Request: fold
Amino acid sequence: MLKKFSVKNFKNFKDEVCIDFEEIAGYQFNTDCITDGVISKMLIYGRNATGKTNLGKALMDIGFTMFGEPGYGGNGIFLNADSPEEVAAFSYVFQFDDTELIYRYARFSEQELQDEELIINGKTVFKIDFAKHEFNCDNLHYIKAETASIERYLQSMEMGTEIEERVESKLPFFRWIINNVALEKDSIPVQLSKYIVRMRMVMAKNAVIFRQSTVNEFSKSLEDKDALKDFEDFLNAMGVACKLITKKLPDGQNKLYFAHENLVSFYENASSGTLALAALYQRIIAKIYDTSFLYLDEFDAFYHYEMAENLVKFLKKRYPRCQVIMTSHNTNLISNRLMRPDCVFVLSGTGTLTALCNATQRELREGHNLEKMYISGEFEKYE
Reply:
């Protein structure tokens, strides 16, 4: 699991912002927000333009680094516009059984690394400074990758830059190891790569956008009666009372309908909230693989407050081990009925992230009305 994350000089985060998933306060209620001593269900509340979306993009940057897949940064500004520093620094701390893994790197841009470091249980496995052309890879045996050839890595990096202009000018060494070294299936690098490939981010602005190919693929999967029933049960659990049915069209495509005496096309007639639920289900819940880390940005933008609460309850029950961060403007969710003061955070306009239990001099207890306290300005100093 991810134990700690920090980023500095990325987009609106000029100073370092840190999420310590191990910093828990020992509350005895809503213990389903904690898994193995780590926060697994977190709510981040913040005003507009505080950086909730950018925080998610920063967390997901490791996926781009490790696999070279399109990142969430887009074509906009990568570094903080007010900082004189030339790189954005990322740090991730993971725990796999009794092994702690720290992976750090710094970027000049989305395409170019400055440095990269891997630490296992306090021992540096490799440390590379691309800017100075310094490569310290003396301890690859810690991850049983001693067969890795630095010469071959340097050659592949140079060849890749020549072949394709779009390729990163500094190929991450960790990515190269995973792709080019015969690692054991249960090795720490393999466990990390399996975790990262299952990290997901869902943004509200994409919640009701459907590509026809995706709709067709999902509708086809619902030919399976159990899959259709699971989707129907999910909508009903969210408060959308409905019965679903699929029908084969003359062109061979499977189409989804609300089951009435006269069938009603699902995608053409569902509300924005229901479509947002369908998008979340398609992208996360219906996947055959388990999501390891889920960042839901303004997840309840199209939901009634009761539906939002139902979704939080659903995620806690169905995915007890998945780390889920939800961002919201909905003060109804700032409640001890759903969360707890060490799992609800306020993101300020200056980029600080503070748990409610640390944002007041009061000793917050289960009986406190957190929403009322928030509205009355109890945590205003940290906004």
